[in-house]
Structures are given as structure tokens and as C-alpha cells.
Write a structure and sequence with these properties.
Radius of gyration: 18 Å
Shape: globular
Order of helices and strands: EHEEEHEEEH
Strand order of the largest sheet: 1-2-5
CATH architecture of the domain at 12-106: 3-Layer(bba) Sandwich
Oligomer: single chain
Largest sheet: 3 strands, parallel
Distance between the termini: 51 Å
CATH topology of the domain at 12-106: FAD/NAD(P)-binding domain
CATH superfamily of the domain at 12-106: FAD/NAD(P)-binding domain
Helix content: 10-25%
Bound molecules: iron/sulfur cluster
Structural class: alpha/beta
Number of strands: 7
Number of helices: 3
């Protein structure tokens, strides 16, 4: 394998899962000086907590806790967020892994998208907003 040395340690880590736990782990590692690849299978980070209104047992506003972390994560120079992607393979050993990631097609130019939502409103194929699953007690535990 070209450019891949088993014993050489590198200053980058991958956090798999972009829920609140993954976000906090990525922030802690990035603040410690590591370059972090935050991998999430869904189109956006946030996970289940971003779907909640309140959190147990303190009844705190979920998004009030999460929003600052989302912003910090998105702006942190040491964090690269990779969404809508899965791990295909992992090689190497502790201190130096090589991970092959498969990104799914979004059919939009992410560098130009401003998040206006017009494509969702006017989609001629499904005309459904994300998430497509019906709201149930598993998806939204507080309902
Ligand atoms: S219509 Fe708006 S949300 Fe959809 S891709 Fe274009 S800029 Fe992004």
C-alpha cells in the first residue's frame, strides 16, 4: 500500500457517529490538538437529541444545550464533518488506521447550498420532507 506505514502514528482521529456523544468527543479531541474526522451516516449531525424538545431528568431545552456545540463543531478548524457516509473498511493498527469511507450522492452542490429548503418544497419526485419515516415513539421518544 503506497504511503501507508504501519508503525507511524498520525495526529488525526475519526469519530464515528455525529450524535451528541460524537460531537462532544470530536470537540474534546479537536481542542486537544487532534485533527478530527467526524463521520455521520445521516445527512446532518445532531442525532436523536436534535429531535427532542426536552431532556430527562432536568427538563432542559434540548436544542439550547446542543446548538452551541453544533456551531462550534461546524466552525472548528480541527474538525472535518463528513455526513451521509459509511465506513467501507478499516486497516492498520492503533495509532495509524486507514479508513475507507463511502459518501452517498446528495445531488446538490454543498459548497453553493444555502439551506433555503426550496428544493424540498418543489421536489417533483417525492415532495416529502426529511425525515420520511412516520413519527412514532421510537423516533420521537417524548411523544
Ligand atoms: S434549493 Fe436551497 S436548500 Fe435546495 S440545494 Fe438549492 S440552495 Fe440548497
Amino acid at each position: 500500500m503506497v504511503g501507508f506505514k504501519e508503525k507511524e502514528k498520525i495526529g488525526a482521529v475519526m469519530v464515528v457517529g455525529g450524535g451528541i456523544g460524537g460531537i462532544q468527543a470530536a470537540l474534546n479531541l479537536a481542542d486537544s490538538g487532534f485533527y478530527v474526522y467526524l463521520l455521520e451516516k445521516s445527512p446532518a449531525i445532531g442525532g436523536k437529541m436534535s429531535q427532542l424538545d426536552k431532556t430527562y431528568p432536568t427538563n432542559d431545552c434540548s436544542m439550547c444545550i446542543m446548538a452551541p456545540k453544533l456551531v462550534e463543531c461546524g466552525r472548528h478548524l480541527n474538525i472535518e464533518i463528513i455526513t451521509y457516509a459509511d465506513i467501507e473498511s478499516v486497516e492498520g493498527s492503533a495509532g495509524n488506521f486507514k479508513v475507507k469511507v463511502k459518501k452517498r450522492a446528495r445531488s446538490i452542490d454543498m459548497d453553493r447550498c444555502i439551506g433555503c429548503g426550496l428544493c424540498i418544497e418543489n421536489c417533483p419526485v417525492t415532495n416529502q420532507t426529511y425525515p420520511k419515516e412516520p413519527m412514532d415513539s421510537n423516533t420521537y421518544p417524548e411523544i
